[in-house]
Amino acid sequence: MPEVKCKNSKTCPAYNECRDSLASWIFLFIGLLATIAVRLVNLFLEFNPLWARIFWYTGIGGFFIYFLYKFRQDRNIQRELARRELSRKLSGDQEISLEDREFIKTILCKLKSSKDTINYFFIFLTSGLALILGIYLDFMR
User: Fold this and answer.
1) Integer CA distances (angstroms), 73 to 12, 29, 45, 79, in order
2) Maximum Cα–Cα distance for the chain, whole Å?
3) How far is residue 111's CA from residue 124's CA, in Å, rounded to a whole number?
4) What are the pLDDT digits (tens) for 121-135?
5) Residue that wins the pLDDT comparison between 6 and 97
6) What whole-number distance in Å separates Cα of residue 100 and Cα of residue 97?
């Protein structure tokens, strides 16, 4: 499919093609907050057990919400892939309809999204910081 080039991006037919929805950004934010909260539990166990519990429930609740959202998104894609029989169509010489092509473009847009990269980096960074802080508090202080 040829690339669409437009002078005014807001009126361009491809404007929303690979844009992330507001809901997906909200759920990413919930996941990032949960990541921070869970990393703060051990730190606050030292100083204020009540806050440690609050962070634990916030983190676990946030992860529950975030991963429920991600599970639903992935399940919807899996069901649609099965319904369309795209694996069979792609492995054979069957023609792929315009509707199937649009669905494949949607999946590719989701894979190109920077949200998962942000999430992975954030989890990696906060886990490293929590590990360093934990080692310091447990063994070096």
Assistant:
1) 27, 16, 35, 10
2) 66
3) 20
4) 999 999 999 999 889
5) 97
6) 5
